[in-house]
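pinging the channel bc i need a second pair of eyes. not urgent but kinda urgent?? the chain im working w is below, pasted from the shared doc
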Amino acid sequence: MLHRTRSLGENRVVTGYMRSSLLLLLAAPLLLANADVTASTAPETPPPPNQSVERSSEVKAMLDAAMKAGDEGAVNAIVKYAKAADKERAAQFESTASAWKRERREAAERRLREAKFLDLVKGRAELGGYFTTGNTETLGLTGILDLKREALRWRHKFRVQADYQESLGQTVRERYLAAYEPNWKIDDRAYVYGAAQFESDRFLGFDERYAISAGAGYSAVKSPALTLDLEIGPAFRYTDFVTAPTERQIAARGKLDLDWKLSKGVTFSQDASAFVEQQNSTITGKTALRVKLFGPFSTQMSYAVNYESAPPNGRKSTDTTTRASLLVDF
């Protein structure tokens, strides 16, 4: 009897142990899943102090190199990276970059204020031409001189242009232009302009044409790669036609200047201007692609259009010029 009672007790222990083991096996997946959730929600272990310091030193070295090179775009990019990579010191990097930009801007303004008149003058000379023989003998020449002076508040632009073409011993194109435009800058984008222009093109029907204008200008796009300037204002034009009476007209003037740097050495430009008046309107446009060669030299292909809405009798309304030119910056 004693042996039988002991066997029943042992059976109960074994049975309880088996039940506990079965429950543990059934609950194991739930415990493992809960462990995964806990691990996933646990806070990330911060990087070791040495690694954080090393990363900060690398960012500071890149920032110092960009500031030394004067590359503001790279400075902005590094500060943006620092905000994501090193949040603890991001404010310090941003403060350093802001102080550098402020000092750079103040130094540039100081140089502009203290510079002599000719120190700020930059120019570009363009010379192009062609000559053909055989069935036709054609000589074509074009020359353009652009000068620009960019000061703190004032900007001055001056242009002289001459086009000449001869075919079979006869002059078939002769056009001269001189223009001066002063700008007074209201802020970084807006400005007020004045413009004076002289033209002579007897093949378009006028010996002399004078135009004066004043109005408002705005730099709609202003970035290292793309600039777009727009101008609009009233104008007065005096035209001395070859075979028609002299005209004096009030007109509206509009102008567009676009420069787009497609790559480091390739620039696309589109210039257009219009004088809209009651008797005769004029629209001019020039599309050009400029490729840098070496040093101050570059080459340019351009296509220019000059349109008169009401030319004198016997004259065509549209005149076009295709140029291949060599440019020199100075």
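so Residues 2-41 form the longest helix (40 residues). and The chain is about 30% helix and 50% strand. — does that match what u expected or am i reading it wrong
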